[in-house]
Amino acid sequence: MKEEDDLVAPQTIRAVEGLVEAVPELREDWEEHLALNHTPLPYLFFADVKRYAIDELRRADPELRRRFAIAINRLSDAWARAQPSGQAARVPQPE
After folding, report:
1. What are the backbone angles phi and psi of residue 79, rounded to the nearest 5°?
2. pLDDT tens, position by position, 29-51
3. Which of 69, 58, 75, 71 is nearest to 94 (CA)?
4. Which of 17, 36, 54, 92 could serve as a FRET partner for 71 with CA atoms 20 to 30 Å apart?
């Protein structure tokens, strides 16, 4: 069950908290997630992140889109370093 353990590993939680620090617009969703679930479950929280990206980033200012892209890429890099293949997904940064 190691794969499931990785989903709630301390480094995974720290990575999600890093995303929330970089994109404070996600803070309310993260706090609501923690209150509802009584524990951090990043794989569930990312449904909120996806919804935020779809609903908000389309009309967001370039600075927010840039911060979001950088934060997601950092999260992807951290996750990739933990994977045997070392492959990270990349999100293009707005110009």
Report:
1. -65, -45
2. 999 999 999 999 988 999 999 99
3. 69
4. 36
Integer distance in angstroms from the first to the last C-alpha of the chain?
42
Do residues 45 and 33 touch, judged by C-beta distance below 8 A? yes
Q: Any idea how long the chain is?
A: 95
Going by pLDDT thresholds of 50, 70 and 90, the confidence category of residue 2 is very low
**With helix as H, strand as E and coil as C, how does 10-51 read?**
HHHHHHHHHHHHHCHHHHHHHHHHHHHHCCCCHHHHHHHHHH
Cα–Cα nearest to 74, from 32, 37, 23: 23
The structure tokens listed for 57 are 């980033």
Query: What percent of the chain has a predicted confidence (pLDDT) above 70?
Result: 78
